[in-house]
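Deviations from the work plan: none for this task. Representative record:
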Amino acid sequence: MKRITLGEFEELVLLITASLEGDAYGVTITQEIEKQSGRSVGFNTVHTTLQRLEEKGFIVSEMGGASAERGGRRKRYFTLTAMGIKAIRQVRELREKIWKVLPAKFLGLAGN
Amino acid sequence: MSKNTLPPRWAQQLLKRFSAQATREEVEGDLRELFLLWVKQYGLRKARWKYIRTVFTVLRPFQSSKRSSTPTPTLATQMMMILSYFKMSWRTLLKNKVTSLINISGLTIGLTTSILILLVVMDELRYDQFHQELNSLHVLMRNQKTNDGISTGESTAGPMAAALRTDFAEVKYAARVAGFGGEQLNVNDKITYESGIYADPDLLRMMTFPSVSGNAVSTLEQGNGVVVTRSMATKLFADTNPIGQLIVFNKHHALTVGAVMEDVPVYSSIRFDLIIPFSVFEKENEWLKKWDDNRITTYVQLHSSADLPLFNSKMTRLLQERSEDKTVTQFAYPFKDLYLHGSFSNGHPDGGRITVVYMLTGFGAFMLLIACINFMNIATAQSEYRAREVGVRKVLGASRKGIAFQFLNESFLITSLSLVTALSLVYLVLPSFNTMTHASAQLHLTRFTLWAALMGIVMITSLVAGSYPALFLSRFLPVKVLKGRITDLKGGGLRKGLVTFQFIISIFCLISTIIMYSQFDYVQHRPMGYEQKNLIDIRLDSTLSSKFGYLKNEAARLPGIRSVTGGSGNILYSGGSVTGMDWTGKRDGEELSIVVTDVDYNWTTTIGLPLVAGRDFEPQFASDSSSCLINESAVAKMGLTNPVGSVVGGHTVVGVFQNFVYNNPFGSIAPMAVFLQPNTVRHLYLRVDDTHNWKSTLDTIEKMCKQISPEHPFQFRFTQEEYQQHFHEMADTSLMISIFAGMTIFISCLGLFGLSGFVAEQRSKEMSIRKVFGAGILRVLISLSQDFLRPVFYALVLVIPLSVWVARWVLSHFNYRVPLRWWMFASGGTLILAVALIIVLYHGWRTAQENPVTRLRNE
C-alpha cells in the first residue's frame, strides 16, 4: 500500500474540508480553521495547501456559486476523494492505536 | 455596493495581472468575500491593509500557469540563451561592418557630447554643496525700485550685520564680506599684489572652510591677524612655517598670519586666498557706518526654527526705519540657490545658471536622440535581410518575446561599445574642452553617481534605439517571410518622419549658430561712441594719484601725445551706479539708477567723445567743481527738456555728451553722470598720435611713475585691445556651440549616408532594369535621391518658422541686437540641403554608373 504522508496543517485543512461537506471553499475553510483552532491563518497558506492537496490527489474541486459579493466570481468547491478519506482515516487509526497503549496518566482521567 | 466597501483598485489590478492564472477566478472571489468579512470585523482601514498584504502573498508573477505544458527553463538554459543572444548580436555586428560602424560612430559622438554635458552639469550641481550648514545659510539681498523696475542685488548696508546679531533672535551668525583686488602685500621685503576678501569671523563659523593650522576664527577676531589658504602660504612664504609671519597689507597694516586654511574648493561661489579682518576695512571706510550705502555682502546663518517671511519683513522694517529710502526691501535668499538660481527680474528669481543647465541637458538628449534615430532607421531598412533570420528563428520555436529581446540586446551591445569609445574620447578631449570653455569638468571614474548616470544613459539609449526595431522585426510572420520577399516594407513612412526630425534639429542648430555668430560680430563692431583707437589707459596707485597734476602736465609735454586726462574708473567698466539722485523736474516716486564716475579736465576731448550740447569742464570756470556732464540716455530717462543748466544730484549740468558703450556691450546704454574730481583719479588716459612711436613715450612715462612710486608695477593697456577681450570668452562659448552643432549635423548626415547607401544597394536591380529599358543616368539619380531629399526639404520648410520664432525670442534678451536677415536662414538651409544632396548622390552615382549586367546576370 502506498504510504500516505500528511503534514500537520494539511491534515487540519483536510479535516476541515471534510467537516464543511459541500460548502468547502477558500473562505469558509479559512474561517473554520480560525474558529476551530483559534489560531489566525493567512489565506495564502490555506490556498497553497489546498492546491498541494489537490495535486496529491486528496481532494478534487469544481467551480460554481458565483455571487454579487464576490464580484461575480465563482467559488472553487473542494470535496475529499476516496484517497483523501482514506488518508484522514489512516491518521486517526494510527493515533488511536498509539493512544491505546499510552500509560493511564496521559489520559487525563486522574485530574492532574 | 458603495465604492468605499471595495478593496483598493490597484491591488485588485495587481491581483488580476500577476496571480497564477489557473486559480485566478476563485482567488479573486475569495478575497473579495474575505474583504467584506474583514470590514465587518476590523473596520475599513485595517481590512484594506489586510487585503493588500494578502494580495502580495498570492502573487505569482513568474508562474504563467501551473497547468501549462511547457516546463519552466532552468537557470542554466536561461543563461545559455542570454549568452547566445550576445553571440548572435556580436556576429550581426561583424557581418554588417559598415552599418555597425555608422551606428557606433554616431552613438559614440552622441554619447561623448552627452557625457561632456553630464560632467559639466554635475559640476554645476556640486557648487557650494560642501558647506555642512548649507540649508541654514542665507545671503541678504536687496530690492531697489527704479524707473526700470526693481533691481535686485546682494548688497547690504554696513551696520545691518551687527543689528541682526544683537536684535534678531533667529540669526545664529551674521558676517559682512567685501572683496578687494590687487592690494599691495609686503612680505619679507618682497612685494606682491593679491586679491582676497575682508570678512567677519562669523563667516568661518557658518561656512565650511576647514583650517590646516591655527584658529582662523580667533585670528579674524583679533583684528591684526590674517588668514591665508595653503596655496597662498606656499606662494608667500615658500617652505617656512607661515604661522606668526608678518604681512604688511596696503602699506600700513601690519598683520600676523594666524591660521592657514585649506584651499577653497573649485565648487565654491565664494572664492579667496586671503582673508583680512573686516575691522581693518571698517576703520578706513566711514561709509560702512551709514545705512544708505550698500556696497558689501552680508551672509547669515539662521536657526532652524526661523520663519523666513517674518524675518524678511522685520529686516525690511529695520532698514526702512534707518535708511532715507523708504522703498527698499531686504530679504534673505537661500545660499544653496544662489549659484544656480541667482538671477532676478523685477524682484523675483528668474533662473540664472540653471537655464544653461537645462539647455545643455536638453541639447545632450537631442544629440543622443539623433544617434538613436540612426540606429532605428538603419535597423528597419535592413529588415528585409533580417526578416528571413526572424522567420527561421520563429520556425525553430523562438517566441516573439525572445526575438524582441535579441534585437534589444543588439542595441544594448552597440550602445555599450559606443560608451567605451565615448569614454576614452572624453578622456582625450576633456583637457582641451576645459581650456576651451573655461570649465573645470573632470572624469572621476570612481564616483558612483557618474556610473549610475552613465548606466542610466546607456539603458535609456539602448531602449530608445532598440525598441522600435525590436517590435517591428519581431512581428514578422514566418510563413510570409520565408515564402518570398516581403513586398510591403512597412516603416518607410516612419523612417522618413524620423529623418525629417533629425534634419529639423540639424538645420535648427546650424541656423542658430549662424545667428549667434552674426550677433557677436554685430556687437563686436558696435559703434562705440568714442575714439577707441590709440587710447591708452595707465593704472595709478594712491601715491601716483596724489601727484596726478604733475604727472599729467609732464605727460602732455611729451611728443606724440595729443591730449591727457584722468578718471576714477576704467572707461570700459565705468563704476557703480547710485540711486536716490535728484534732478530738475523729478516727480514723486520716480527713481533712476545712474552710473557716476569722476574725471579730470579734457575728458571728452581725450577719449574722443562728441558733446551734444553745452561744454566740457574748463579750468576758467571755478564753479565746475559743482557741475556735471550727463549722457544722452540720462537726458532721455530724466525727461530733461533743457538739459544744460538743469540740476542733477546737486550739480549743475554744463554739458551733454553722446552715448557711448560701456559695461555691457549687449545692453542698452545706462544713464551716466560725470563729475569733475581730479583728486580721485586712478587712471591716466593718453591720446597718442597714430603714426607716433608710442613705445618710447610710454617708457618715459614709466620712468616718471617709477620715480614717484617705485613699488607700483607700471601697467598700461590699449583700451581697444582690452575691449576686444570682452569677446574672447564669447568666442570660446560660440566655438563650443558650433562644435556641438557640427556634431549634430555630422550624426544626421552619417545616418543619411548609411540609409541612402543601403537603399541604393537594395534598389540596384530596379535601377539596372530601368537602365536596360533606356533610363538615363539623370533619371536614375532623381529616382534614387528624391526619397531622401524630400524629408530634408520638409525639415527645411518646417524649421524656418520655428527658428525665426526662437531667434526673435532669444535676441529679445539683448538690447543691442542684430536685425534678422533672410540670408541667415537661407544659408543654413541651403548648406544642409547641399550636404544631403552630395551624400545621397554619392550612392546614387555609384548605382547609376554600374553596368546593368553585373546586377542582372544572376537572375
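DSSP finds four helices and two strands in chain A.
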